[in-house]
Design goal:
single chain, 434 Repressor (Amino-terminal Domain), Rossmann fold, 3 domains, seven-stranded mixed β-sheet, two-stranded parallel ribbon, 17 helices, 9 strands, about 35% helix, C5_meth_CS, EC 2.1.1.37, transferase, DNA binding, DNA (cytosine-5-)-methyltransferase activity
Length: about 450
């Protein structure tokens, strides 16, 4: 089975001037529902419809799928790059960072500039602001996230545009008095597989992904440094080839790169949340000033929910259905489904009860004396429940925000469900600040050497 990438299809729709899925379905000669099923990861694509889509878009099937390796298995394509053919590529672990710097106490020599892509509700941008960065522009396509950004920072230049349009028109056209050189490009693009055209992993292999447009804007701006954030799963995604392609592209553009999986709990955040950070320094600066980057040293202490959920401002919050609430009332603080009576656990878990493994996220009640588990976009989802330590309910919006280290005055200007989504998708603010200070450490060295 293979999945067709909506993002890749969207890119080709734009290229052909096809505005909506309804219009695309009409051109293909199928119904809109058939097209929706074709683009849904929950359904095995009907081959005839997939071929109609390729014909309409003028592409090959491998150009619009998420996983080219699986396609090779399904179609018997022996020409697709496989693991043995990529032995001439580098090992991503050669570029994993191992150096750390104590960032508490670092202050910027001056106000450094940053442009951010995929800004969301502003967790990364706010953390970078706290570290000493001045935001020149933030690109975000979601209108509700843009509302949140404008509500909290009316002076920020929020560019409510599709990243494809911004990259094609040139981001400098959206920034008033854009300096010739900025200090940092930041952002967290979605994790998507690439179509591999050959052994060399280059920018063209990334076409049709949102990473491609991040890279194109990096190529346009050529900032002193860049920061790219993503989910931990990127390290092993598509057998490591996704990360390998990204690193290769960044190096081709002209940057010395390092990556590291960091845990938010190490940086003043009451949450176990692992994310990969890729940091790059422009090659000419590395050579001229003999500088290197070090990741932020863990702070050496761990915050618990008790530390951060005192005197939380009142706010709305999701509710459990009555049947679920009765089950969760039986779970002690720090417990999960295995703490339920066996018959109730079997009924609540269904088939999952017999699948083995931990499944510690189901019927999970958190403890006051531990950090939170990773917050998701939906606080009441069965697979990743995060029940309040004492009360049988999900966390409220403001509790969610506290756990992600947003200040209480940061307002989420949207519906409750959208607020959970914005907070759940965000980079924890204090984690972003720590990474920002580690970047300031390098920019200070460049600034001081340049003044000599």
């Amino acid at each position: 089975m293979y999945n067709i990438s909506k993002e890749k299809v969207r890119v080709h729709m734009k290229r052909l001037g096809i505005a909506t899925q309804k219009e695309l379905a009409e051109k293909m000669g199928i119904s809109k529902n058939q097209l929706s099923m074709l683009l849904s990861p929950r359904f095995n694509p009907i081959k005839s419809n997939a071929l109609k889509l390729c014909e309409t878009l003028g592409v090959d099937l491998e150009d619009i799928i998420d996983n080219s390796e699986q396609l090779a298995f399904d179609l018997g394509d022996t020409d697709t790059v496989n693991d043995s053919e990529q032995e001439d590529t580098f090992n991503v672990f050669d570029y994993e960072g191992h150096d750390f710097v104590e960032v508490r106490g670092i202050t910027p020599d001056k106000q450094y500039t940053v442009v951010e892509l995929f800004a969301g509700a502003g967790g990364l941008a706010l953390g970078l602001e706290m570290a000493g960065f001045h935001t020149l522009g933030l690109v975000e396509v979601d209108k509700y996230a843009c509302q949140t950004l404008r509500k909290n920072r009316p002076n920020w230049n929020v560019i409510e545009k599709d990243i494809i349009d911004v990259a094609e028109q040139g981001i400098k056209n959206f920034i008033d008095n854009c300096p010739d050189e900025i200090d940092l490009l930041s952002g967290g693009y979605p994790c998507q597989a690439f179509s591999y055209a050959g052994k060399k992993l280059g920018l063209n292999d990334a076409r049709g992904t949102l990473f491609y447009y991040y890279a194109k804007i990096l190529e346009e701006l050529r900032p002193k440094m860049f920061l790219a954030e993503n989910v931990k799963g990127l390290v092993n995604h598509d057998n490591g080839r996704t990360l390998a392609t990204m690193l290769s592209v960044f190096m081709d553009i002209g940057y010395k790169v390092q990556w590291k999986v960091l845990n938010a709990v190490d940086y003043d955040v009451a949450q176990k949340r692992e994310r990969i950070f890729i940091i790059g320094i422009r090659n000419d600066l590395v050579e001229k000033y003999n500088i290197s980057y070090s990741f932020p040293q863990p702070y050496g202490y761990v915050l618990t929910l008790r530390d951060v959920l005192q005197n939380v401002p009142p706010s709305e919050g999701a509710k459990y259905p009555e049947e679920k609430r009765k089950v969760l009332e039986l779970v002690p603080p720090g417990g999960y489904w295995r703490d339920l009576p066996e018959e109730i656990a079997k009924q609540y878990m269904g088939k999952s009860y017999y699948s083995g493994g931990g499944r510690t996220g189901m019927a999970r009640r958190l403890s006051w004396d531990e950090p939170c588990l990773t917050l998701t976009c939906s606080p009441a989802q069965k697979q990743t429940e995060r029940c309040h330590p004492e009360e049988t309910r999900p966390f409220t919006v403001r509790e969610y925000a506290r756990i992600q280290s947003f200040p209480d005055e940061w307002v989420f200007d949207c519906s409750m469900n959208n607020a959970y989504k914005q907070i759940g998708n965000a980079v924890p603010v204090n984690m972003a600040k720590a990474v920002g200070l580690s970047i300031v450490n390098v920019l200070n060295k460049i600034n001081r050497e340049g003044d000599v």
